[in-house]
Structure to design on (222 residues):
């Protein structure tokens, strides 16, 4: 087994925590103009795990670091606790099936690819979800291909009235300078129904504000 070598394992955790677990800042929340998401203390939506997803994510990644020898087994629980502490804030509740597929992907990662966990496991878990309103070709290209081809497919194939389709159509007409990306929209596939409903007002904002609002509710750019 090839071991991942690092002087400071906490550095490897930083991008993971920022990517998946950190909630909205006050400034972003203000930019959303009243569009508020689920808080950690609020009731979870159907098909979600409420606040438990924080421990789910942290347990999965720390467990993989332990099995790969990056973190000593004696530091496991402390590392999980520190990971969760870095994940405070207003974040979405995720679908249970997304969490299960994400954890399975983390568990299968090679030890020399842990730093790429977000690039590999986020789109991989999304592609496994049932009830996806998007054509498979759109998910495949937009999750791991080029933005240009993704935009062309959105124009030709994305016609639904669901929030994810509406988000992609809005992204397609927004400029790249706005910071609004296709990943923001695709990550909505992992949201519980309640978390998904909470982002709907974001789609009525102008491009830059829409992107800020979506990220304020926990969308992900991988």
């Amino acid at each position: 087994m090839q071991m991942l070598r690092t002087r400071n394992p906490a550095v490897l955790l930083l991008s993971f925590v920022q990517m998946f677990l950190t909630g909205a800042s006050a400034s972003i929340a203000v930019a959303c103009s009243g569009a508020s998401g689920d808080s950690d203390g609020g009731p979870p939506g159907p098909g979600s795990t409420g606040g438990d997803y924080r421990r789910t994510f942290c347990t999965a990644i720390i467990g993989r670091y332990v099995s790969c020898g990056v973190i000593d087994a004696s530091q496991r629980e402390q590392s999980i606790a520190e990971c969760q502490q870095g994940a405070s804030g207003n974040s979405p509740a995720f679908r249970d099936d997304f969490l299960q597929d994400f954890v399975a992907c983390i568990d299968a990662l090679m030890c020399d690819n842990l730093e790429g966990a977000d690039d590999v496991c986020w789109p991989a878990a999304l592609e496994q979800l049932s009830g996806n309103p998007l054509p498979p070709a759109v998910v495949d290209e937009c999750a791991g291909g080029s933005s240009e081809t993704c935009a062309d497919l959105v124009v030709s194939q994305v016609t639904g009235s669901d929030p994810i389709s509406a988000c992609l159509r809005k992204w397609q007409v927004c400029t790249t300078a706005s910071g609004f990306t296709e990943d923001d929209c695709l990550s909505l596939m992992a949201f519980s129904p309640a978390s998904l409903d909470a982002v709907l007002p974001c789609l009525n904002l102008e491009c830059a504000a829409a992107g800020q609002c979506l990220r304020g509710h926990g969308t992900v750019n991988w």
Notes: Confidence is low (pLDDT under 50) at residues 1-12, 22-51. Residues 168 and 182 are 6 Å apart (CA to CA).
